[in-house]
User: Which sequence fits this backbone?
């Protein structure tokens, strides 16, 4: 077990160094966690490099016999906490959560208690996205056209503030594999259903399984990410090391490890984020790829329409599309209040409503109330939260997408 811990610290720290080095220092927008004051987030960002260097040094120490020293593990967890706090605000993806949660779980002593928490983290990592797909995309998400839309989106379109050199390296995309799937509907359907089945079966193994089930679940979960990366152009770099640490050690093989008090608290916290599709930090519902094909088509039709703005001061408008920011990668984000302003889960049936002034008013009200996005443009109003939207004309091509 000690060697497994050392290996995890070594591998994860090397990945973290590359991951956090791409914090997004040029990002024109910071995504403010709902609880965090602006001054705290901007102040933490100034010390971001120090957090990253400390994380790297502590991680290398923990890859030695010093892995048993609690205060070193605690300091490492704190550095991960601070670095991921800033990285989430600047980048906005979900790839770091499994690493962040695992680093905190490593504060527990080795054994069944820690293993129970780690099993639940893996169940959340794969199960929460599956639940949110059905909550948001509904039964239509099960149609293979959903995967087709995701692949076409990854194949043809680049979004702002991308790519991240670790999460979205340009070389990971394989147009040949994408085109092969798009040409053969049976292959597309097979991969679509196999992906969802893998997510659900891994969750069942984490919640109910023993040694054999967990070994198969680990292999299936790792294969899921390896096959998805070239098709969708997205890498979850921390997932495979965290899956192995959680599911392979002997202390994880007894399902009774899930009944410890820390495991029950973990289940309550992570389960709540799934139920409410929380898009926040440090707790997040991981609503990854939640939209069905029809919803994606409608969302693309309003890309570029609702632009972040300030209600006062100059310059007022930003040129940054709120919907693109909220939907993000391929699309991979879900802000429930943004979705509600668009008409809820049925917005795919109301393309005309999405172009109305009512939507702009609801989006402005949401921004004024939550102040979730901070202007960081050098030529904007740095440090001030966007609290309004302006409506821009969109191209006829975009309008036809939603027709």
Assistant:
């Amino acid at each position: 077990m000690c060697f497994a811990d050392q290996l995890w610290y070594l591998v994860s720290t090397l990945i973290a160094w590359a991951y956090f080095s791409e914090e997004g220092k040029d990002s024109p927008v910071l995504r403010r966690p709902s609880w965090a004051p602006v001054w705290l987030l901007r102040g933490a960002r100034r010390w971001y490099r120090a957090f990253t260097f400390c994380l790297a040094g502590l991680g290398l120490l923990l890859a030695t016999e010093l892995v048993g020293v609690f205060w070193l593990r605690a300091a490492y967890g704190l550095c991960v906490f601070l670095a991921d706090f800033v990285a989430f605000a600047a980048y906005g993806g979900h790839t770091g959560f499994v690493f962040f949660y695992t680093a905190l779980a490593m504060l527990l002593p080795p054994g069944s208690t820690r293993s129970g928490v780690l099993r639940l983290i893996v169940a959340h990592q794969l199960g929460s996205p599956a639940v949110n797909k059905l909550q948001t995309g509904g039964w239509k998400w099960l149609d293979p056209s959903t995967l087709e839309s995701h692949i076409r989106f990854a194949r043809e379109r680049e979004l702002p503030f991308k790519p991240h050199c670790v999460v979205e390296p340009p070389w990971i995309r394989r147009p040949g594999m994408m085109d092969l799937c798009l040409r053969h509907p049976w292959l597309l359907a097979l991969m679509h259903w196999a992906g969802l089945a893998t997510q659900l079966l891994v969750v069942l193994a984490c919640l109910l399984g023993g040694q054999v089930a967990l070994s198969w679940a680990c292999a299936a979960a790792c294969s899921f990410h390896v096959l998805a990366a070239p098709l969708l152009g997205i890498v979850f770099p921390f997932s495979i090391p965290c899956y192995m640490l959680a599911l392979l050690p002997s202390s994880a093989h007894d399902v009774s490890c899930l009944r410890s008090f820390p495991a029950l608290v973990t289940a309550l916290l992570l389960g709540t984020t799934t139920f409410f599709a929380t898009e926040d930090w440090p707790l997040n519902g991981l609503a990854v790829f939640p939209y069905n094909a029809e919803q994606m088509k409608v969302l693309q039709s309003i890309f570029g329409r609702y632009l972040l703005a300030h209600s006062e001061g100059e310059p007022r408008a930003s040129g940054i599309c709120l919907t693109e920011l909220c939907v993000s990668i391929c699309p991979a984000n879900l802000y429930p209040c943004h979705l509600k302003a668009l008409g809820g889960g049925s917005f795919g049936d109301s393309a005309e409503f999405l172009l109305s002034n009512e939507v702009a008013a609801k989006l402005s009200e949401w921004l004024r109330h939550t102040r979730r996005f901070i202007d960081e443009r050098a030529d904007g109003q740095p440090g001030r939260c966007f609290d309004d939207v302006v409506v821009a004309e969109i191209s006829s091509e975009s309008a036809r997408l939603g027709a």
About this structure: The two ends are 57 Å apart (CA to CA). The first strand starts at residue 29 and ends at 31. Strands lie at 29-31, 306-309, 317-321, 373-375, 388-391. Residues 2-275 form one domain.
